[in-house]
From TrEMBL:
Name of this chain's protein: HD-GYP domain-containing protein
Positions of the HD domain: 148-271
Family annotation (InterPro entries): DUF3391, HD/PDEase_dom, HD_domain, HD_GYP_dom, HDIG_dom
Top-rank taxon, per record: Bacteria
Residue ranges constituting the HD-GYP domain according to the UniProt record: 126-322
Annotated organism of origin: Qipengyuania benthica
The organism's taxonomic lineage, starting at the top: Bacteria, Pseudomonadati, Pseudomonadota, Alphaproteobacteria, Sphingomonadales
């Protein structure tokens, strides 16, 4: 346990609250210690009478180091972009080969080598921590004939990356990565002509394709030493919040957080990949459409996923690391460096002079750390729409 006392306005999503200072009656939550996962809960704390609190940095995020500290740290990655891409490509290729071996073994009724899976996941976790952008970029460039295996690697990486955004601890993040790597193992039991059919599936073919969730659960259950999270995600990553998913038609909180994360990572990678029957959507198109599918995904986790990959639709209200609110007015090239019109100080609780900024990386004051509901700050949607019109086009 590593405790640190911070000011209330230093609190961020992903931090683990160990205790609030002052009386139990001063804070608005039943529990005194919990992982702060949602922006809405953060805003509730900021509006309370709490002045200081204790966070446990061993269970969640710590305060960011100042910019000069990052510049001086010997652990800073000084590799060139090409070197980072080459390193990420090696990780992806090794992971792909392991996944191919796991799928082939399952197809032949042989044992799955859990040690090989664990080694791959560990390597992906390390790469996400040190080389996140390069790894996710390489995984987006998968070829159609490699989709089956690289999709599993991509979902693994996206799950670990999302866990990182949510402040989930390292061990649980690795288990989520394992779940992502193995979530589609049941597809080895579905005929290839169904999986790769270029046109729409018939009703009979669709029923057959859906069996992969339960088949995968059965296959993983025979391994015996995999984390329960892997079996859960394998079985339930096609469930939907409104109960229209499969195989069990679970609703909302009946679906575990891990399975809700898996649903988002699986769909995002699928729709942004070239497939035999469709061309890839851009990341921005994918996120925009996924947010419009009411009842499909957990909106809070989808919001965190959006932050984790740095893709924000036009008009999204966000919180910057320097405690300003801004509205996304342009996605930028490939939507990876959104342009934001900053307009409000959360510390002063007042509107500021509008400033156009390019969202920086996570060490920057301009880094986007969360999506925000403007109503929680007394800001109307009409005000946001006016700001969008003011900020476009980028000048």
């Amino acid at each position: 346990m590593t405790l640190r006392r911070i000011q209330c306005d230093q609190l961020q999503v992903g931090m683990y609250i160990h205790a609030f200072d002052g009386s139990w009656f001063d804070h608005p939550f039943w529990s005194r210690n919990f992982l702060l996962r949602r922006e809405s809960d953060l805003e509730t704390v900021l509006r309370s009478d709490i002045a200081t609190l204790l966070i446990d940095t061993s269970k969640g995020r710590d305060l960011p180091l100042p910019a000069q500290a990052f510049a001086q740290t010997p652990a800073e990655d000084t590799r060139t972009p090409d070197e980072k891409t080459a390193a990420a490509t090696q990780v992806v290729n090794r992971a792909r080969d392991v996944v191919r071996g796991v799928f082939d073994a399952a197809r032949l009724g042989k044992a799955i080598e859990s040690c090989a899976v664990s080694a791959v996941v560990e390597e992906v976790v390390t790469s996400i921590e040190s080389n996140r952008h390069a790894l996710l970029k390489v995984l987006r460039l998968k070829k159609k004939d490699e989709y089956t295996y690289l999709h599993s690697v991509a979902v693994c990486a996206l799950m670990v990356n999302l866990a990182r955004q949510l402040g989930i601890d390292e061990q649980a993040a690795a288990e989520l990565g394992t779940a992502g790597l193995l979530h589609d193992i049941g597809k080895v039991m579905v005929p290839a002509e169904v999986l790769n059919k270029p046109g729409k599936l018939t009703d009979e073919e669709y029923v057959l394709a859906k069996t992969h969730a339960l088949e995968g659960y059965r296959l993983l259950g025979e391994v015996g030493n995999l984390p329960a999270t892997a079996l859960d995600v394998c079985q339930h990553h096609h469930e939907k919040i409104d109960g229209t998913g499969y195989p069990h038609g679970l609703r909302a909180e009946q679906i575990s957080e891990a399975a809700r994360m898996g649903a988002i990572c699986d769909v995002y990678d699928a729709v942004t990949s070239n497939r035999p029957y469709k061309d890839a959507w851009s990341p921005l198109d994918a996120i925009t459409r996924m947010r419009q599918w009411s009842g499909h995904f957990d909106p809070q986790i989808l919001s965190a996923f959006m932050v984790s990959i740095g893709v924000f639709p036009l008009g999204t209200v966000v919180r910057l690391r320097d405690d300003r609110l801004g509205v996304v007015i342009e996605g930028g090239r490939n939507s990876t460096r959104p342009k934001v019109l900053a307009f409000y100080s959360t510390r002063q609780r007042e509107f500021t002079r509008n400033e156009l900024v390019v969202a920086g990386d996570e060490r920057s004051g301009n880094a986007i750390i969360a999506e925000v509901d403007p109503a929680a700050w007394g800001i109307t949607r009409e005000k946001i729409d006016r700001l969008v019109r003011l900020g476009v086009p980028w000048v």
